[in-house]
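Input/output pair, single chain:
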Amino acid sequence: MRIEVSIPQQTLTVFDGDQILADFVISSAANGEGCQKNSGCTPTGQHIIRAKIGEGAPINSVFVGRRATGEICSPELMTEFLNRDWILTRILWLSGTEVGVNRLGEVDTMQRYIYIHGTPDNVVLGQPGSHGCIRMRNSDVIALFNMVPVGTPIHISGGQFA
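Output:
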């Protein structure tokens, strides 16, 4: 099993061999692609799922610092906390596997806290908009979370946004 993320197409596809198991619309970084710390970009290259967080949490559960806050995202909560980067429902924490490209030093995906995670229902997907992570619909991130194990390889390909 493997995952292919296309930044130009804003898609995440799950494969078992050559067979497509699932295809999802995503949102990558508003700042584009890049592996540098503090860039706000989505890292490219080879990664793995290092950890899965949030199993069994209710849909729209809010996470801060990879911990469930006990809150459920709502329009009222979003109004109360206008500047939050909403990380909802499930987290798949990514780790780069290419030393000097997306692992260690100033380009470490895991140290940058890059995740695949759920996002509020009003967030537009299919176009860049995140702070570096890969955003998905909450029902989609639950499906992905349940489908793939820790250690699943992920390739994030860059290029011009379509």
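The beta strands are 2-6, 11-16, 19-25, 45-53, 61-64, 67-72, 87-96, 115-118, 134-136, 153-157. The CA atoms of residues 11 and 134 lie 10 Å apart.
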